[in-house]
Amino acid sequence: PGGAVAPDPLGRALERRFTHRGAFDPADIRDWAPSDAVLVTDREGKARIAALNDAVSLAALRDGPARRELVAWMRLSERHPRYGIDGMSRDALRMAPFEARAARLALGPFWRLLDLLGLTGGLTAEAGATQSATAIAAFHRPRDESPVESGRAYLRLWLAATGRGLAGWPMAALTDDAATRDRLHADLSLPPDRDLLQMIRFGPAAEPPPPRARRPTSEIIV
User: Fold this and answer.
1) Is the Cβ–Cβ distance between 87 and 213 less than 8 Å?
2) What does the pLDDT look like over 11-26, one tens digit per residue?
3) What are 90-126's pLDDT values in tens digits?
4) CB 202 within 8 A of CB 17
């Protein structure tokens, strides 16, 4: 049957949602209890996840093809032909110009040397930003659920966070690695019929959001 459909209140948060790689300001979220996420808010729990994230992320970057793919999506200079169109811009990565130039060298031609010298861990660490998060959300869904349904729930979780004034940053390395994902599943006491799909750090961004990258319509609709 026809009839008007009431707009979803979460829709108002769509244009305000953004990822934030930097540090977060404090916030009170004691009344937030999402049904499909465990919120880690204690200092010790966040510190353990931060250390694990740094270790797994470094291991992932040591895989040459994966690192080169990451670099290919980074827009570390405003002179990049795709800057502001797609990928991860220097602004979105919260890098100063000199940091972006150093990252291009460190993740590219100097990586093997820096790794042999034991310097890559310090260059790629994000523990400070992770521990500053108001909460680290362990997003989980039914094991047999359609990826489309899981994706819809993931967006709704993020929009609910946005409605509370929170930005987020996915820590995908934690769930991309099967052993780490299983370890977190056990540490967080998730039921066996649930899949841990993503770990996201949430908090009020200490800086305003960067400009959004936007692909032209001609690249989306052929």
Assistant:
1) yes
2) 889 889 999 999 999 9
3) 998 989 999 999 999 999 999 999 999 999 999 999 9
4) no
